[in-house]
């Protein structure tokens, strides 16, 4: 039916346009430098967060390699592999930033010329004040830093890579929930076919993606604003555009049955998938905000609230 394509396109374009508008109006607000690599718990060393991110990066990379070895480039026809790769990129950037932060944290005061050679040139300034703040967070309960240093810490914002890390974190949060909910709740029970082989690698890819990210959320200090959903919506629209371009070039096979445009139910499926983005991101948003709200009240001397 000729009318299904423009209607489905309209269902996709409207959320994308809203998302772009939200991003434009909220503007760039990268996280503070200290939030990129320090845990939200004062007693936990940033080296633990570094080790966790590095380990997850290696494990997820190995799983993705196994999938590519089995399916080849065909694996990247699926939203799952797109999202899985994005989470890997998040942990890769997080590992590098954590490593740099821990290196700075473990050093004695360094000179400006040494700092200029760092990965986050332009991101980290006033390192001595940052070191004092981090060490004070670990060792003291009631002692406050001088107002000038505290103000510098709160005003210090991450540069390009810190901003990218936060955006990928927000996209991944909604995407991993969407991926796992659709797979376990829709595809596996109702739409299984000969192309869907449930094996250990597939089980891991549709579970560990969310588990690893949730554990990172439990310990990191990255802010999780509501408008991060806009990036999540754009991510899904990019994947949809990729699929439509492939089919415009002659591909006839759809990776997910509900993306098929020739069925009379196509607009309803597209609308349902568009709407399900809201609870998927909303669940993760509630988890992130609930963590801050609960632990900051229950353990105010041990937990550092994100902003």
TrEMBL record:
Keywords: Membrane, Transmembrane, Transmembrane helix. The keyword Cytoplasm does not apply. One of its GO terms (cellular component) is membrane. The keyword Transmembrane applies. The chain crosses the membrane at residues 6-26, 47-70, 82-105, 167-188, 200-219, 231-256, 268-287. PANTHER family: OS02G0130600 PROTEIN-RELATED (PTHR12242), PROTEIN ROLLING PROTEIN (PTHR12242:SF6). This is Uncharacterized protein. It comes from Dendrobium nobile.
């Amino acid at each position: 039916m000729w009318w299904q394509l423009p209607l489905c396109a309209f269902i996709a374009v409207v959320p994308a346009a809203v998302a772009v508008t939200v991003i434009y109006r909220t503007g760039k607000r990268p996280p503070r430098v200290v939030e990129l690599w320090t845990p939200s718990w004062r007693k936990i060393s940033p080296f633990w967060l570094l080790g966790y991110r590095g380990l997850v990066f290696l494990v997820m990379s190995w799983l993705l390699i196994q999938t590519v070895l089995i399916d080849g480039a065909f694996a990247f026809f699926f939203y799952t592999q797109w999202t899985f790769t994005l989470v890997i990129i998040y942990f890769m950037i997080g590992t590098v930033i954590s490593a740099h932060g821990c290196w700075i944290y473990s050093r004695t005061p360094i000179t400006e010329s040494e700092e200029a050679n760092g990965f986050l040139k332009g991101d980290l300034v006033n390192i001595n004040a940052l070191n004092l703040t981090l060490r004070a967070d670990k060792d003291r309960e009631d002692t406050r830093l001088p107002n000038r240093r505290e103000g510098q810490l709160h005003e210090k914002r991450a540069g390009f890579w810190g901003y990218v890390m936060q955006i990928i974190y927000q996209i991944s949060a909604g995407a991993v929930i969407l991926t796992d909910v659709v797979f376990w709740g829709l595809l596996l029970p109702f739409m299984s076919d000969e192309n869907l082989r449930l094996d250990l690698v597939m089980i891991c890819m549709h579970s560990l993606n969310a588990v690893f990210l949730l554990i990172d959320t439990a310990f990191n200090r990255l802010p999780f604003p509501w408008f991060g959903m806009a990036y999540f919506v754009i991510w899904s629209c990019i994947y949809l555009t990729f699929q439509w371009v492939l089919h415009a070039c002659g591909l006839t096979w759809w990776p997910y049955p509900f993306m098929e445009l020739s069925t009379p139910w196509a607009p309803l499926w597209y609308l349902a998938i568009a709407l399900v983005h809201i609870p998927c991101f909303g669940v993760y948003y509630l988890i992130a905000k609930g963590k801050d709200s609960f632990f900051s009240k229950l353990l105010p001397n041990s937990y550092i609230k994100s902003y």
